[in-house]
Amino acid sequence: xxxxxxxxxxxxxxxxxxxxxxxxxxxxxxxxxxxxxxxxxxxxxxxxxxxxxxxxxxxxxxxxxxxxxxxxxxxxxxxxxxxxxxxxxxxxxxxxxxxxxxxxxxxxxxxxxxxxxxxxxxxxxxxxxxxxxxxxxxxxxxxxxxxxxxxxxxxxxxxxxxxxxxxxxxxxxxxxxxxxxxxxxxxxxxxxxxxxxxxxxxxxxxxxxxxxxxxxxxxxxxxxxxxxxxxxxxxxxxxxxxxxxxxxxxxxxxxxxxxxxxxxxxxxxxxxxxxxxxx
Length: 279
Ligand code: SIN
Ligand code: MN
Fold this sequence. Notes:
Blueprint: H1 6-15, E1 17-20, H2 26-33, H3 36-41, E2 47-49, E3 56-60, H4 67-72, H5 76-86, E4 90-98, E5 108-111, H6 113-121, E6 128-134, E7 145-147, E8 160-162, E9 170-172, H7 175-185, E10 197-200, E11 206-208, E12 219-226
Antiparallel strand pairs: 1-10, 2-3, 3-4, 4-12, 5-11, 6-10, 6-12, 7-11, 8-9
This protein binds succinic acid (SIN) and manganese (II) ion.
């Protein structure tokens, strides 16, 4: 069972993130990336494309219909450390693959995830952990995720709704706020081989630049929410903010390379009632 040590937990409290390079092997990542051409080729509402090209920007809820990603969603190396930090079971709030395609991958403006979830989904507390798993090597060239270390300690900051910059609307932070936080905390961009994993606090301020390189920067982002902290409002469709709050039941550690039976509830498409929304 993957457990964090004292130093890692202290680092999380101080900086708001933990970086675990090469937590997964290249063959485990290959098992996932081999699925992506088919996934990105689907003409479905859960595949959001870049504003200025047909390249997929984000593919949401892949774990509801693809068996390999469904097994990743139940991986103990990913789930156990989060349960350790929260001291309770977690459910999947959001699951997405961000493609950040070679040449075409666009920016993510500075934001905090919890700000979005609190405002849109009425998630009560910042007790949902963000996980990033690198499907490709991440370098300074292919638009690495950037953090302002320690910025989670400021709680929820005032944000404006950006519906213009990219193809995906986001509550983002203004230049003055970012300048003041970054002049104190600096900016880091954890880089490493495919298979590396980042855990980061849902109030940690983050962003990423465009990918001008010839190398994809495909990353799986999962948000694992403490079960007691489940969302209270279904203002967004279910593929953006999941509505099933059952605790994740982990599979064995070899689940990316061995076949285990998993539930694939949306294999025939997203059910109608998951698209209905309530103000
Ligand atoms: C995100 O913040 O949700 C995505 C950032 C990125 O993919 O760089
Ligand atoms: Mn984010």
